[in-house]
Amino acid sequence: MLDNNTPSDTDKNVRPKMQRPLRWLWLAVAVIALDLATKYIASSQLGYAQPVEVLPFFNLTLLHNTGAAFSFLATHPGWQRWFFALIAVGASVALTMWLSRIKNDEKLLAIALPLIIGGALGNLYDRLVHGYVVDFLSFHVAGWYYPAFNVADIAITLGAVALIWESIMGERRRKKAANASH
User: Fold this and answer.
1) What pTM did the predictor assign?
2) Strand segments (E) across 6-124
3) What is the pLDDT of residues 4-44, one digit of tens each?
4) Which of 3, 9, 105, 153 is the catalytic position?
5) How far is CA 167 from CA 13, 67, 70, 158, 161, in A?
């Protein structure tokens, strides 16, 4: 019989839950604020579709995207606005729920999820208020132009990369720690 004060083998493998994980949502708020501020500046200072060269491979070019990444579904009659809005809301709720349950050793996940949430909500604001997403960062080389993007897109991308990294390296780290404790 186990003594109540003695941890069992299964207790040793239980990872403690992070205390107050939703405090990381400040990062989502910061992403939204930076995203909306830069979109406001771009919209008020740039002429539509008129590139302003910053570097030989980088322009500031104000564009409006009614679709998603790479202008996916942009040519459709307008239903995609609500479709992408629904996805942004659903993803933000799901990611916030996930954030509320993360473990103490998942710090990178605590950064990744709010980055994605902030980016999704920054672009959601544009979709709901303007009917399109404001893009203005344009990279190009040898006549080939990468689709324009914005700060929200950067946050989503960084969050996704961090999420993938954590899913691969975090599992390895946990296995290594578990093997070391045996």
Assistant:
1) 0.82
2) 52-55, 58-65
3) 544 444 445 577 887 887 889 999 999 999 999 999 999 99
4) 153
5) 18, 29, 26, 14, 10
